[in-house]
Amino acid sequence: MIEIARLQKSYGDRPILDGVSLEVPQGTVCGVLGPSGSGKSTLLRCVNFLEPFEGGEIRIAGESVGYDHRDGRRIPKPRQVVNRMRSECCMVFQQFNLFSHMTALENVAIAPYKIKGMSRRAAREQAVALLDKVGLGPRKDAYPAYLSGGEQQRVAIARALAMSPKVLLLDEVTSALDPERAAEVLDVIAALAADGMTMMMVTHQMHFAREVCRNIVFMDGGRIVEEGGPEMLAAPATDRLRSFLRHLRLA
Amino acid sequence: MDALAQLGPVMPQLLRGFLATLELAAVALVLGTAGGVVLGCLYAWGGKLLRALLFALLTLVRGIPLVVQVFAVFFVLPVYGIKFSAMASAAIALTGFAALTTMEVVRGGIAAVPREQFQAARSLGFPFTTALTTVVLPQALRIMTPALVNQAVFLVKATSVVSLFGVTEFMFTAKEQIERTLLGFEIMAIVWIVYTVVCYPMTLLGRRIESRLKARGHAALAGP
Ligand SMILES: Nc1ncnc2c1ncn2[C@@H]1O[C@H](COP(=O)(O)OP(=O)(O)OP(=O)(O)O)[C@@H](O)[C@H]1O
Ligand SMILES: [Mg+2]
């Protein structure tokens, strides 16, 4: 579903992603681990094309992200195509970023209404159903300021699901939450994984990653240092991953 | 009693002046605010060059007394062959002033909305302008309302400077009538009351809008 090949990305002349290649088969979850600054968020932002990149290629469901490749040249895609592809591959952020002037329901309904041309009624009905699904039916009319972090993050997930994306990108979605609130959100993600949603997930929750991820990649310095199935966390092959995991356990 | 009798015939004149002031204020407010929103967006999202240009203009407008700006439109532009009627010149000067000062308010409002809000909208596939109009501007508006109302009230009163250039608005007719009737105190009292009566409801309206914006969500989706 997601294919990333030799991805190159730099800020100024500082390389941030240096030849990242990975594949996420349809219906599976790929966990992305790595120390701070290793380029995990940047990788997800490139897949969502919130950031342009200089080299390599990303494909979602076979369609190239951001650029067309013709005669060995890269041609930026038209804006409408970029926007459409973004709506098929939604991102959920560490800081939730709910629209603060809208209720939970409006947050979930606004994108299908505004950009998919769904009727107001259908958008609201879908939003109610999605909020029920993440366990927030009774809180649908609350503004984000009146929701707990865990509730806000679940609304944010519902907001992304409202676009019926092919892929969900989750960037440390539980890092700003206490363990109980985090568990609420992780339950929602586990349910999505069971439903066969294709996801790429940056996380520091090792137990959770081991349970839901088909593949895990460990990044450092803009490269994938080690990748494999969940068992790799129990028996890391590289010293780098071993020391990373040791520090994580101590923390 | 004598004064009251004398005031009678003054009233139609004052009313005419008052209507001219309202017209001037309305034009400057509507065009100035619209222009200010556009300029504010350009400032917030435009390129470096545009930003520098707008900043230079703003600095100019802020640094020069309003009277001098109006003077420039009335007397300097004609030197370059650009001529308008007195009323049009006044409208142009005030609109320009309003647009640039509103731009600064709008820019500040947009800057106060966290960038992540815009990014979240973009990541869902919102086109640039839709993200701006449904996510950023409504939040910016809530932040800006007090400053915008202040600005509007100031502008209504500021229209009086053009009386110095012979535009027959409220202040000018009032002065004219004072010279004619010598009822300085009475007419000035009327002027004061009228400006207050116009400006006070604007402040109240601003408060109302502010609390409405706070209370309700996105209008387009409200209701069943
Ligand atoms: N807009 C930017 N301009 C310049 N450098 C940036 C920008 N965004 C990120 N970087 C740099 O890119 C590198 C990778 O950042 P990124 O956010 O992808 O790391 P990360 O792995 O997500 O880290 P964390 O775990 O802290 O979230 C960092 O060194 C960061 O300083
Ligand atoms: Mg990050």
Sequence-ordered SSE layout with sheet pairings:
The complex is a heterodimer of chains A (251) and B (224).
Chain A: E1 2-11, E2 14-24, E3 29-33, H1 40-47, E4 55-60, E5 63-64, E6 67-70, E7 73-76, H2 79-87, E8 89-92, H3 104-115, H4 120-133, H5 149-161, E9 167-171, H6 179-194, E10 198-202, H7 206-212, E11 215-220, E12 223-228, H8 239-250
Parallel strand pairs in A: 3-10, 3-11, 8-9, 9-10
Antiparallel strand pairs in A: 1-2, 1-4, 4-5, 6-7, 11-12
Chain B: H1 2-45, H2 48-63, H3 66-79, H4 86-112, H5 115-123, H6 128-158, H7 170-181, H8 184-215
Bound molecules: adenosine-5'-triphosphate and magnesium ion.
List the strand order in the largest sheet of chain A.
8-9-10-3-11-12
CATH architecture of chain B: Orthogonal Bundle
Q: Give the fraction of residues assigned to helices of chain A.
A: 25-40%
Counting DSSP H or I runs of 4 or more residues, the number of helices of chain B is 8
Report the sheet with the most strands of chain A, covering strand number, pairing sense and barrel closure.
6 strands, mixed
Note the beta-strand portion of chain A: 25-35%
The CATH class of chain B is: Mainly Alpha
Radius of gyration of chain B: 21 Å
